[in-house]
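Lab notes, practical 5.
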Amino acid sequence: MKKIIATLVSVSLAVGSYAQNVGTDAAWPYQISPQTISVCAEPDNVPEAMLLASMSGVAAKSVNAEDYEEMVWTSFPDDSAVFKAVVRTIKPFTTIETNVWELLGKYADAGIVKGYVLYTAGNERSVNAATAYASSSDAIMVDESLQGKMESYGLELLEDCRGVETADAESYATENIVVVATADDAGLRDFAIAYGVKVIGPSESVPEGAVAIGRVNDSVLNPFVFGSKSGNLPVLISAERHLAAKEEGEDADSEDLEISMNGMFHRINSAIVR
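Output from the prediction step:
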């Protein structure tokens, strides 16, 4: 019991401190809640982590387009309190335990994943361009080392980002937020793919007027940052809409309901510690 309480307190303090650093009226993208959540353990290697993050982003896009009813939750150590709060809030019909490759087969068969984008591991510009094209093409991100497996899933190469310096400007649907990440950080790429958010490297300048999110070498980025094991933002955003709607007495699916970054953390924090 003491360990559980300690975990809840640490999550509460972390989320609360990030919320205090927001100081912005920027709004989160809209996310419809899923009827099903597939729970997949965090992969132990970067190529599979990138693959899973991209599937999560594509699934969130499909839910928003009302073409699918399932989203992905990547399970990290000690995140059970957060996930329980999410399930309690969204109340999905079911949750499913799965793995990366089982999930890929399911999404390929369902036509949710349209193909794959190839990138070079460790190459920041290649990885970030692949993230953008995965978003615009409803595709998964595939490292060169995994390309041989794609044929067995019936997936075609849609874009080759090896050696690509940058993605086309029209690949980005969201302009007021950017994700800052290293080449091997999959954490917030589900968010970037789901909403067409640009990913930049730690040495790149944040566009004027944009909000930067991410963590680089344990340095907090202004105005706020997630933990070292970040991810699952699409699911969290859908949960936060329910919490915000409950507070304001509105329908949880109201498209007019604006979600502020600061408000999101406040409400999720409250839900976790209940």
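Observations recorded by the TA: The first helix runs from residue 2 to 20. Residues 2-272 form one domain.
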